[in-house]
Amino acid sequence: MINFKLTIGILLIALLLVTAIVGPLITPHFFPGEDPTEVGAYPTLDLPSPKHPLGTDILGRDAVVIIINGIRLSLIIGVVGGFMSTLIGVILGFIAGYVGKRTDTILRIFIDMVLVIPILPLLLLLSLYIPKWNIFTMGILLGIFSWAFVARTTRAQVLSLRERSYVDLARLNNEGTLEIIFEELLPGLLPYVILSLAGATVGNMLAEAGLQLIGIGAGLPPTLGSIMGRAYNGGALSLGLYGQLLIPAGILIMVFLALNLINMGLEERFNPRLRQYAEER
Amino acid sequence: MERNLKSLDKPDRNPAQFRSTLRNKLQPYTPVIMYILRRFGIYLITVWGAVTLAFIFFHSMPGDPFSIIFSALERENIGRVTGGPEVAAAYKRMLGLDQPLFIQYIFFLRNVLIRGFDLGPSFINFPQGTREVIFRQLPWTIGYFTTAMLIAWGIGTLFGALLGWMRRKGFTSVAIAIATLLQITPVYIIAIAAIILLGYQLQWLPTGQPYDPGLMPNWRDWNFIKNVLWHAVMPVSSMVLIWGASFTLGMRSLMISVLGEDYLTYANAKGLSPAIVLRDYAFRNALLPQVTSLGIALGGTINGVLILEAIFVIPGIGGIFIRAMALHDFNVMQGVVLLSIVTVLTLGLIVDLFLPFLDPRIRRLND
Predict the structure, then answer these.
(1) How many whole angstroms separate alpha carbon A130 and alpha carbon A128?
(2) pLDDT digits (tens, 9 = 90+) for A12-48
(3) How far apart are CA B344 and CA B302, in angstroms?
(4) For the segment B267-301, what is each residue's pLDDT rounded down to a tens digit?
(5) For residue B322, which residues of chain A lie inside 8 Å, CB to CB?
(6) How deeply is A242 buried, as exposed, middle or buried, from its count of CB atoms within 10 A (0-12, 13-18, 19+)?
(7) Where are the domains of chain A?
(8) Torsion from C-alpha of A171, A175, A176, A180, nearest 10 degrees
């Protein structure tokens, strides 16, 4: 049986990835002899025309081309940040859940502490010290500040995996600690790791856009967030160039929607109670 | 005198016996007391740790605020500021920033915990303290966000309970799809969409200021209050939309899981009317976790506060933070971060302490 939600989610993600990878290779052919992403290549805030379907932005770049490039840049920021937070989160959560006892108590309190420290103000503070952002500093910083949630869910998963009977069996068979970790626990944990990686990636893409809207991250190449920020703060809206704001916003919503659909689809697929519920419909 | 002596002779005035009666009376409540003490201990440790982490973070920034301010001045004026380093050193001495970090930490803890959140002077409004600067603008943030959150919670809880109760009848799937879409849309996109649609296009609601610029802020003047409320309609309703959607979905899934419980089947089998089953059995049981999520949501909105206040131009603590950041006012920035940490943790504590009174199952869990 084909799962409707799963299929649509995967198709949306595939569409996005194809645009991000292939798009920047194709766009130069529409503008022979020009660089549509160069600052001041065209008059600023040009109204939509056949050559510039969404007009140009406040810095005189073609809006369609920078949006296509922006998808790629936003994805890179999201993935770098997602890897960072998943790595830290899974390691700490795993140690807390697996070692248990006092280590667990200390780590849990530490995770809770980090969880209540608001991320955005700290990123804003750090931004004072970063004269020139690039997409990797942005991604890594977002990742460093957002691992606590991953750590918490990983810990809960490890706690439940540790008590499974096949792990007890492995212990009775005198398997070593490393063997238990790598052969019994990590394979069971993998789906959650992948899901939290995907979740953290999308979360970081959205967080980056939010930062850009309040003016943080100057000097970054045009990500989806900075395109939105420029459109909102730079007067593109008063000229009626809504596409420059709504299309990046729509793409961000689409990524999030796709992730949610995949998540729901997977759950319906692998959770028998929900599967029955879904088949009734 | 005589009466006093007599009462001393009474058996329950005997200290040892009194203690044992007390112990017997408290016996059934021991789990609750242990729960409260434990929870309170964790609260204190977490507050201390998070505040310390914030302190370390703010003080591990390279350079001190004054050197940064002076170098920014130099950059802006394209030239040297005479006597910059000396003035910076004098200010640092005045604020105790020349002390070793450990001493600063001790003073910091004393000022925050004992002197009641005293974080020293604010640099942007110099002679004024950070506390005054923050607390003066705090009512705006509380007014906007708490109102919006409470309305969203109320609507979301009722609507979610209804959706859960109806399962898959009628318009539920459409409502669920809309709520899901609203929930996953980032806060700022809905805010901007509201401004574009209602503010610029239809021009129904005012945007970009908390009240008309011609008015003098005066909370006794009914016209001023009306104006503020009118300007608050759009920000508050878009926040209600955003949070209401997630409260609705949360309540709906809680409701569905309660509906699957055996005691609900039993209540139905007893022949209770559906209204009573819904109100006293399903709704009440689903409400408890929903209260917890209100506490978490109320505390955890600081990130949203920053962005939404910037977009809607609300003069609350988010606005102060952004202004403080532009002027490198570290004390105010630290104050906002600390305030939000303490708020999140305290609301969490209050919710957790209320739960055993609302939910007998938690009391028994500790046995």
Answers:
(1) 6
(2) 889 888 888 888 787 777 777 677 777 766 777 667 7
(3) 9
(4) 888 888 888 888 888 888 888 778 878 877 776 66
(5) 124, 214
(6) middle
(7) 4-26+37-280
(8) -70
Superfamily of domain A4-26+37-280: MetI-like (1.10.3720.10)
Chain-centroid distance of CA B90 in Å reads 38
Cα B169 → chain centroid: 36
- Verify whether the Cβ–Cβ distance B322 to A214 is below 8 Å: yes
ipTM of this complex: 0.72
pLDDT in tens, B300-334: 666 777 788 888 888 888 888 887 877 777 788 88
| Helix A186-213 vs helix B187-194: crossing angle, to nearest 10 | 30
Burial A7-43 (b: 16+ CB within 10 A, else e): eebeebbeebeebbeebbeebeeebeeeebbeeebbe
**Separation between Cα atoms, residue B36 and residue B282, nearest integer Å:** 28
Given a contact cutoff of 8 angstroms between Cβ atoms, the answer to whether B161 and B283 are in contact is: yes
Shortest Cα distance from B245 to chain A (angstroms)?
15
Q: Which residue of B has its CA nearest to A264?
A: B180
**Is residue A231 a contact partner of residue A244, using CB atoms and an 8 Å limit?**
yes
Contact call for B186 and A257, based on CB within 8 A = no
Beta bridge partners of A56: A62
Q: Which of B47, B39, B66, B46 is nearest to B117 (CA)?
A: B47
Residue of A nearest to B39 (CA): A109
Q: Quick check: B263 and B175 in contact, CB under 8 A?
A: no
